[in-house]
Every structure is written in structure tokens, then in C-alpha cells.
Specification:
The complex is a heterodimer of chains A (about 210) and B (about 500). In chain A, about 30% of the residues lie in helices and about 20% in strands. Chain A has a single domain, classed as Rossmann fold (3-Layer(aba) Sandwich). Chain A has about 210 residues and is α/β, with parallel strands linked by helices. In chain A, strand 4, helix 3 and strand 5 form a beta-alpha-beta unit. Chain A has a 6-stranded mixed sheet with strand order 2-3-1-4-5-6, sandwiched between helices. In chain B, about 60% of the residues lie in helices and about 0% in strands. In chain B, helix 3 packs antiparallel against helix 5 and helix 12 packs antiparallel against helix 13. The chains are: A alpha/beta (about 210), B mainly alpha (about 500). At the A-B interface, helix 1, strand 2, helix 2 and helix 3 of A face helix 12, helix 18 and helix 21 of B. Chain A: InterPro entries: P-loop_NTPase, Small_GTP-bd, Small_GTPase, Small_GTPase_Rab. Chain A: One of its GO terms (biological process) is protein transport. Chain A: One of its GO terms (molecular function) is GTP binding. Chain A: It holds the Pfam family Ras. Chain A: Protein transport. Probably involved in vesicular traffic from ER to Golgi.
Chain lengths: ~210, ~500
């Protein structure tokens, strides 16, 4: 996949941060995108986003990460961003069981509104607050197995696993996109075109009549 | 309150804040001539040496260097203006240039110095080297007396330097007089405004809102002393809320919050309540706003839709409401007031509940009013189609979107088409700006002024102000690609604005 003309990346991946309000979605994103942690708290009202450029297996990948408001009220807006997303970070707070319980509901939302092949990573944030922990690591792992997603316990505050979690998500998404791309192309490299009005004239020489 | 601000230009810093006060002039990097000198110990000697008529080039040069160092120090300490500092540096440069062409062995220099010392300062110009010395020392305001007298005694002055110093000091005096005058005028204006407001508020009626006099008063900024009353009157009380009603709901709100916390910690599932809650109509006693027509939300799938959960959201959002105003989240009285106010509202309008962004409105009102007034104002504000048409909700109605888009297109056509080209939708900024009425993105003092106008004019002012912010954004915008546009917008949102911590409005009265 060659760099597109005029673009400074080989691949453009859209990721989405989901989870209840206050689990630390914005803090995780700020840590990943800028390696910073703000001691003052930021509410996301509506939708926000950050860009991060990364190298993955020799490819220059541009990650566009959408940060969403966690409150149910904003669901109508955030749902409209589900469609274009290639990967989702599902975040809960290990010190708040409600946010963990809510993950199943979030998974339902994803199944309902997102693309079927979207990659999911489960993240239990605030793992630095060991004394306040209410969700064990084992429970997180079990849920992750259940929803078939890689699992990370992170701390945006003390920078534990943040990079790994996002990178894993990026790699998974990249691989799934590349796989999709290769399956949608015959081995000889010509394009598969769904449009019935367009016919392939010959192998390797895709063109329309 | 008259402070203007600019939006950050540095796109690489995620946590830029908007300074309330104009930035201090940046201290220029040290001039190469003096960067390696460390002559602090010589300062006293410097003074002694000065005026002795020494013609030793290196000594004179050192004095110059020291002078320049001293000037830099004064400038850094803020004792002299950038202009004055620059003047000193220029003199130094001039001296350097001229002294390069001088024969320092010439005894006439020391002769001149001796002669000059007996003459008044305004006599014939002396050599560049001496001029330079005089210039440096005479240009230090903190040493004015000493150096001036020294200069006059020694007669080493240069008319140009004297003129420059006098002009600078006159300019400074003028500036300070002007400032005093402006301050006095402002104070007088504020006093007069307070008087006018008091009279206006006594005879307040529905018509007052549209009177040109009130418009003018609001445009000048409502004095903090009467702001609470003025806001409260401008918002009005079409819901006919009474103190009794407030007391009932305040009690119920606290109970709701307690119950929600208990459930939350016990981990009880309260999904069952959901349906009954969703279908429950608003209290009959409260007139509802005109019916909302946003597309139906996706079916609720988890307990967070219940009122218990929106009450829990209050706890999460309190530390994030004006994070730089610590008294709202230090566990003290103000935090309690804010929490109670929001819980009271949840009890009063369970159909609306707590919506993220509302905590900013509540906090803003509490800064100017007592708890009852703040509740009355919050309930009426959130309910009023004049401010939030058709309702206070994350979903904007199509008429709102088209009002905004049409005004945007008409006023900032280039930016509008740029946004369109790069798929930058209004959702990325307008929802936030609207639900918090700019409290989250603007410094508090600026936001307060915006509110003075917003509460009088209503939603039209919201659109005007949004366009104003976008216009500022345009000026810092390279208009290159979607990311730049979006990131700039997103950065406007992230500002924590701690710079206005000392604002006059922020201190609880």
C-alpha cells in the first residue's frame, strides 16, 4: 500500500473511545497523543478528537481518535460516529463497578451501530488506584475473552500500558483492514467491483466499458 | 472585565490557556556582548570608577558591559519598559561602532572629561565613548538620582541622551496619568451603572429586557455587585417557582443522591426502574417547553438512563466544573452548594435530569446568587426556548442548525466552505459551546461578559458569539487540512484557563 499522493501517511485509521462518563477516556487519549496528564479534569461535552501518527510494521499510519461524551444523553450524537470507526477502545474504571457492568451495554451498542468487523480493545483504566479497586484483573480478563477482545489494565496518570493498548488496537485494526483489502482483491491484483454497471475487461486491466 | 484575549497559535501544545492579561513582553535573549560576563561583584567598583576620567579602554568597556547587564536586569525585573531597554542597547551598539574608530591613546579624551566635569551638562558634545557611558547610566530609572547627579557633576552628558531620557520619563508619566484617569472614569462609570441598575431592577418588567438603556448597560458589562439580581431578572421566572417548591426539591434531590450512591456502592442493578422513568411525564406543576423534535434517541440499553444515574453523573462532573476554581471541589461549602443545586434540579425535572454541561451553568449562577435564586434561574434558563430552543439538550434542532449555518456562511464564507470541504461539522464545537454557554472554553471573566449579553439577547447572541470565536479561530488558522481545523477547535476546548484565577468575579462573596 503506497503512500497516497500528497499525503504524509500510508494508512488512515479511525478509532473511537467509548465508555461511561468519568472513566478517563480523555485522559488516556491525552496521554497517548501528547504524553501528558492533566491533573485538572476535562469533561467531554459532545465529541472531541486527536490525531497521532505512528509507524506500524514499516507503514506510516495516521490514527484519528474520536473521544466521546460518556453520558447516555449524548448517545444519539456519538452513535453517528460509530459507523466510520475501524477500531474501538472500550474503557471502564477499575475503581467503579458500574462502569465495568456497563461494558456489556456498550458492546451491544457497537454490535448495533458499528461496522461488523470493527476491532475492539477492552481497557480497565485507573489501575494505579489499587486500594480503591473494585473490579479485579481476572474479571476484566474474563469479560475480554467473552467479547473476544485483547485486554489491558492501564493508568493514564502513571502511564502504564497506555501506549501498548493503543498500539495493539492500531495493529489489530491495520491488519484487519489489510486483510479486508486483500480479500476484496483477486490475487492477480485487479479490482473487484460490486457495481453491476462496471465490468472487468480482463485480468490486471480493470476498466469499465 | 474589559480584557480581550487571543486564541493560542501554537498547535503543538495541547493544554494552551488563554491569558487574561496581555502577555508580558518577552525578554530578549541576552545580547552577545554581555552574555558571558559575570560582573555582579564589580557593581560597586563600577560606581566608584565611573566618572573618574579613566581612559582605559577595557575599564570603560567593562563599565558599558555592566551597564548593559544592569539594564537587562532592570528590564527583566519589569522596572524599565522594553522600549527603554532597546534604547540602551542601541546606544551601546552605537558606542561600539564609534569606539572602533577611535584612537584611545588620544589624551584629549581624558582632557575633555576633566574639562567637561567643570561645565554644565548641556555644553559641547563629548566623545562617543563618554556619551555612551553617560547614556547608559542616565537611562537607568532606578539609579536616576545617583547617575543624574553624577552626570551633571561630571558634565559628561549628551543632549541626545538627556532628551531621550526626559521624553521617556514624560511618556511614562503621561501613560500613568492616563491610566489613572481611565481607572477613575471606569470606577465612576461602574458606580453610576450600579445606581442605574438598582433603579432599573426595582421597576423591572418584561419590557425592560428590550429597552435600549438596558441593552447599553449590558453591553458595558454588568457590575458584579448587581450582576446576580440583573441576571435573575433577565432570566425571569415564567415557571413560577416558589421558595417552598425549591425547599421540597432540595430535600428530595439530596435523598435521590444518597439513594443513588448507596445503589452504586452496593452494585444493585436498577434496570427495572428504567422504563417507568423514561415514560414518566414531567411534573404537572411545571410547564414544559415547546415540544422537542430531535430524532428519537437509540433505545436505552443500560441503567445510565435512569435518574439515579444522572444524579451520579453530577458527582463525576463536579471536579470537572471550572477545574481551576478550587472552592468548587475542595469538599467545602461551595462544592456542596453546587451538588445540591444540580440534585435539586434533577428532582424538579426528572424527565430532563442532569445533562453534562449543566454543571457549568449552575456554577456560574452560584457565583452571583444565593442557592434559591440560582435554582430559580437555572430551572428557568434551561427551560426557556429564548435561550435554548427548543430545549436544553445535546441535540440541536434543524432550525438551530440552519440558523447557525446560514449566519456562518453569510459572515465567514471562506471558513464555512473550508469547514464543509473538510467535513468539519457543527457537532464538534457547537454542542459544547451551547450546553455550557461558553463557560468551558472561555476564561471566566470573558464568559461572564458573554453571559451579560446572552441573557439579555438570548439565542441570537449565542450564534453571534460562536461566529466571533470562529472568526478568531480563522485568524490563527492555516486553513490547511481537516486535522488542523479540528485540532484547533479541539484545543480551544481544552483550555483550562487557570490564568484568570485571580479575576474579580471568581472570589466567592
Amino acid at each position: 500500500m503506497a503512500a497516497k499522493e500528497g499525503k504524509d501517511y500510508d494508512m488512515h485509521i479511525k478509532l473511537l473511545m467509548l465508555g461511561d462518563t468519568g472513566v478517563g477516556k480523555t485522559c488516556l487519549l491525552l496521554r497517548y497523543a501528547y504524553d501528558s496528564f492533566s491533573p485538572t479534569f476535562i469533561t467531554t461535552i459532545g465529541i472531541d478528537f486527536k490525531i497521532k501518527h505512528v509507524e506500524l510494521d514499516g507503514l506510516h499510519v495516521k490514527l484519528q481518535i474520536w473521544d466521546t461524551a460518556g453520558q447516555e444523553r449524548f448517545r444519539t450524537i456519538t452513535v453517528s460516529y460509530f459507523k466510520g470507526a475501524h477500531g474501538v477502545a472500550l474503557v471502564y474504571d477499575v475503581t467503579d463497578r458500574d462502569t465495568f457492568e456497563a461494558i456489556r451495554h456498550w458492546v451491544k451498542q457497537i454490535q448495533e451501530h458499528a461496522e461488523s468487523n470493527v476491532s475492539i480493545v477492552l481497557i480497565g483504566n485507573k489501575c494505579d488506584k489499587e486500594q480503591l479497586r473494585m473490579v479485579s484483573r481476572a474479571e476484566g480478563e474474563e469479560l475480554a475473552r467473552e467479547i473476544n477482545a485483547p485486554f489491558f489494565e492501564t493508568s493514564a496518570k502513571t502511564n502504564i500500558n497506555v501506549e501498548d493498548a493503543f498500539n495493539k488496537m492500531a495493529v489489530m485494526t491495520k491488519n484487519s483492514m489489510m486483510l479486508q483489502e486483500s480479500t476484496s482483491r483477486p490475487s492477480d491484483g485487479s479490482l473487484m467491483v460490486d457495481d453491476p454497471n462496471v465490468r472487468l475487461t480482463g485480468s490486471g486491466k480493470g476498466g469499465c466499458c | 472585565m474589559t480584557t480581550t484575549h487571543s486564541f493560542p497559535k501554537n498547535p503543538s501544545n495541547p493544554s494552551i490557556t488563554v491569558p487574561l492579561t496581555p502577555p508580558q513582553p518577552e525578554v530578549p535573549a541576552e545580547t552577545p556582548d554581555i552574555s558571558n560576563l559575570s560582573l555582579a561583584d564589580d557593581v560597586d567598583r563600577d560606581d566608584d570608577t565611573f566618572g573618574s576620567g579613566s581612559s582605559d579602554q577595557s575599564t570603560l568597556s567593562n563599565i558599558d558591559e555592566r551597564a548593559l547587564n544592569r539594564a537587562l536586569q532592570l528590564f527583566r525585573d519589569g522596572e524599565i519598559e522594553e522600549e527603554e531597554y532597546q534604547k540602551i542597547v542601541n546606544y551601546h551598539e552605537e558606542y561600539r561602532r564609534e569606539s572602533d574608530n577611535l584612537d584611545y591613546g588620544d589624551s584629549s579624551d581624558s582632557q575633555d572629561a576633566t574639562n567637561d566635569s567643570q561645565d554644565p551638562p548641556s555644553t559641547a558634545p563629548s566623545s562617543p565613548r563618554k556619551n555612551s557611558l553617560v547614556n547608559f547610566f542616565s537611562l537607568f530609572p532606578t539609579r536616576t538620582d545617583r547617575s543624574d547627579s553624577g552626570v551633571r557633576e561630571e558634565g559628561l552628558d549628551d543632549p541626545r541622551a538627556v532628551r531621550a531620557v526626559r521624553a521617556a520619563s514624560r511618556a511614562k508619566e503621561r501613560k500613568s496619568r492616563m491610566k489613572q484617569k481611565v481607572d477613575a472614569q471606569r470606577q465612576a462609570q461602574i458606580q453610576a451603572d450600579i445606581q442605574t441598575w438598582s433603579e432599573t431592577l426595582k421597576t423591572w418588567s418584561n419590557k425592560s429586557l428590550s429597552s435600549p438603556a438596558v441593552a447599553q448597560l449590558c453591553a458595558r458589562g454588568i457590575p458584579p455587585k448587581v450582576r446576580g439580581d440583573a441576571w435573575s431578572k433577565m432570566i425571569g421566572n415564567p415557571l413560577n417557582i416558589t421558595r417552598d417548591l425549591w425547599m421540597i426539591h432540595e430535600k428530595r434531590g439530596s435523598q435521590m443522591m444518597e439513594a443513588a450512591r448507596r445503589r452504586s456502592t452496593s452494585g444493585a442493578d436498577h434496570d427495572q426502574e428504567e422504563d417507568t422513568f423514561i415514560s414518566s411525564p414531567p411534573p404537572a406543576s411545571s410547564p414544559t417547553s415547546s415540544p422537542a423534535s430531535p430524532p428519537p434517541p437509540p433505545p436505552p440499553s443500560r441503567s445510565s438512563h435512569s435518574r439515579d444515574h444522572t444524579v451520579i453523573d453530577i458527582d463525576v462532573d463536579i471536579p470537572r466544573t471550572f477545574p481551576y476554581l478550587s472552592f468548587f471541589h475542595d469538599g467545602g461549602e461551595w462544592e456542596g452548594r453546587l451538588r445540591r443545586l444540580l440534585a435539586t434540579y434533577c428532582s424538579y425535572r426528572p424527565d430532563i435530569g442532569y445533562i453534562q454541561g449543566m454543571s457549568f451553568l449552575a456554577a456560574m449562577l452560584l457565583l452571583s446568587m444565593d442557592s434559591y435564586e440560582a435554582f430559580l434561574s437555572l430551572a428557568n434558563l434551561v427551560n426557556s426556548p429564548r435561550y435554548f430552543s427548543p430545549s436544553y439538550s445535546p441535540m440541536l434542532s434543524s432550525s438551530q442548525v440552519s440558523l447557525f449555518n446560514d449566519s456562518f456562511k453569510a459572515n465567514l464564507p471562506l471558513l464555512h466552505s473550508h469547514f464543509k470541504r473538510h467535513d468539519v461539522t457543527h457537532e464538534l464545537f457547537l454542542i459544547d459551546w451551547r450546553l455550557s454557554v461558553f463557560c468551558r472554553i472561555l476564561p471566566l471573566d470573558t464568559a461572564v461578559r458573554i453571559w451579560d449579553l446572552f441573557l439579555r439577547e438570548g439565542e441570537t447572541f449565542f450564534v453571534k458569539c460562536s461566529l466571533g470565536i470562529l472568526k478568531l479561530l480563522r485568524s490563527t488558522e492555516s486553513l490547511s487540512d481537516t486535522d488542523t481545523v479540528l485540532e484547533n477547535i479541539s484545543k480551544i476546548r481544552v483550555q483550562g484557563s487557570p490564568s484568570d484565577e485571580g479575576g474579580s468575579f471568581c472570589t466567592p462573596s
